[in-house]
Design brief:
Shape: globular
Radius of gyration: 15 Å
Structural class: alpha+beta
Number of strands: 6
Number of helices: 4
Largest sheet: 6 strands, antiparallel
CATH architecture: 2-Layer Sandwich
Low-confidence stretches: none
CATH superfamily: GAF domain
Distance between the termini: 20 Å
CATH class: Alpha Beta
Strand order of the largest sheet: 3-2-1-6-5-4
Amino acid sequence: MAEELFISSSTDKKEKYQTLIPQVEALVSEEADLIANLANMAAALKQTMGFLWVGFYLVKGNQLVLGPFQGPIACTRIAFGKGVCGTAWKEKRTLIVPNVDEFPGHIACSSASKSEIVLPALKNGEVKLVLDVDSDNLNDFDAVDESALGELMRLIERKL
C-alpha cells in the first residue's frame, strides 16, 4: 500500500487526475473496508486538487449522513432531495453547480463554498453514497472533473 502520493506539478487538472487515478486505484484495490477507502480517497483528492472540501455522505434511511471528509466542518445530515447532495441522490445523477448561491435550496455548510460537484455511487440501481466536492472559486467544475471523479466513483462502486 502506498503511504504517499506522487502529485503532478502540472497546473492542468486533467494531468493531475491522470496521475492521481491509478494511485487511488492501487490504494483501494487491496483494502476491503469502505470507510478506510473513502477516507483515503477524500485525502488524496484534497491533497492533489486543493479543493475547499472533499467528502462523502452515506445513505442511512431517508438521510445522507456525513462520512469521511477533508476540509472545514460540514453539515452532518442532509435530507433526501434537499440541497445539491440530496438532489443528486434523488435524481441518481451527477450535478455540477457553477454558483451555489444560484442553486434553489442550496445548503450552505460553508460560506466559503462557491461551486460544487456531487456524484452518486450506486449498487443495484440504488444510491448508497455521494461524493461531494466544493470549491471556493465560482464555476470550478467541468466535464474533466465529472469524468475523472466518475472514474473514482466506479472504483468505490466495486467495493459496495
